[in-house]
Amino acid sequence: MNSLIVVLVFTVFLYSSGEAANCNDGSNPCGLDAVHYNLANGYQCSQSGPNSVVCTCPGGYEIDRPCRICSRSNPLQNPCRNDTGRLITCLENNDLGTGYSCLCLNLITQIPEQTVHPNCGEPFTSPTNTSTNTTAQSSCANGGVSIGTTCKCPSGFIGTSCNQSQPEELCRNVICKNNGACAIRNPNGPYESVCLCRASFSGEYCEIQGTLGFCSSSSCLNGAACREVVIGATRTAYCDCLLGYRGVKCDTRYFSCPVAGKFRDDEMYEQGKYFECSNLAGGLRLERKSCAKGLRFNTGTQACTD
After folding, report:
1. Neighbours of 11 (CB within 10 A)
2. Running DSSP on this structure, what letter comes out for residue 94?
3. What tens digit of pLDDT does each residue of 66-82 get?
4. What SUPFAM superfamilies does the record tag this protein with (predicted)?
5. CA atoms within 13 Å, Cβ hemisphere of 134
6. How does residue 36 score in pLDDT terms, banded at 50, 70 and 90?
7. Which of 108, 208, 234, 276 is the most buried if burial means most Cβ atoms within 10 Å?
8. For domain 132-169, which architecture applies?
């Protein structure tokens, strides 16, 4: 386990009223117009209950209604700044993820150019297309798995060999735990799906539940490491369980290697996780493996399928 754990905290806005809030009944509880709606520009409305929805914004920076990335009240938080005097305007384009462009003045040609650099210093370059031209049906690209003559494709890819990128489908079959919401983002380049966690939850799929307060000698059991996350005046302690343990304090052991082989991870099955036990120095070594996002481990075929 890495000694340095980076925790990303996303903020969501829970909307509720005296009337039932529904993302799809025309009431538009997140205040999104025809352009800024659902996955367009990274804005999203997700049903969290019969009378409430979760509204998320590009990058998880702030929630407003409507939450528009180009019109923040604090100019320092706007994605486009006028540090070099070249900024013309900020445009919320019909895209995924961060979903904006900065319209800047090209000082050489005096013709506007689009860029995503915050001070209009670099020309805009489109994300690299991650699809391939693989035609062999038995060769599955982008993490796809070959089952007979068929490729099982992860979320975000389609085609007979999973060679066609479909970013708007990156949340397909991705399940976040503890009422987390799946969203499409591009924080480091290519678009990817991430789980936006509610307060007191963390982890790749919001699977770790924390407790308010400081870490102590009794916070975590069975060798689990305790870490603290401070947001404003709120301090939360999280236990990072060793493999095969679960619970807020990692107090329950739910899996240990019976024999060498691959086994379903009952705690994280819907998130594509499974266990692999291998012989090592007279014993058994336990490892957690992961299918590509959107795929699940099938104990019958011993492979990742959809």
Report:
1. 15
2. S
3. 455 666 556 666 667 77
4. EGF/Laminin
5. 21
6. low
7. 208
8. Ribbon (2.10)
Question: Within a 10 A sphere around the Cβ of 249, how many other Cβ atoms?
Answer: 19
| CA nearest to 43, candidates 28, 58, 65, 24 | 58
- Whole-number Å distance between alpha carbons of 166 and 45: 20
Annotate 107-174 with DSSP letters as a single string: TTT--EEEE--TTS-S---PPPP-------TTS--TT-EEETTEEEPPTTEESTTS-EE-GGGTTTT-
- CATH code for the structural domain at 210-252: 2.10.25
13, 45, 58, 2: which is closest to 240 by C-alpha?
2
Whole-angstrom distance, CA of residue 56 vs CA of residue 12: 6
pTM above 0.85, yes or no: no
Task: Return the domain boundaries, the chain.
Answer: 13-68+176-196, 75-115, 132-169, 210-252, 255-299
Task: Please enumerate in sequence order all residues whose Cβ is within 8 A of that of 135, keeping only pairs 6 or more positions apart, or say none.
Answer: 161
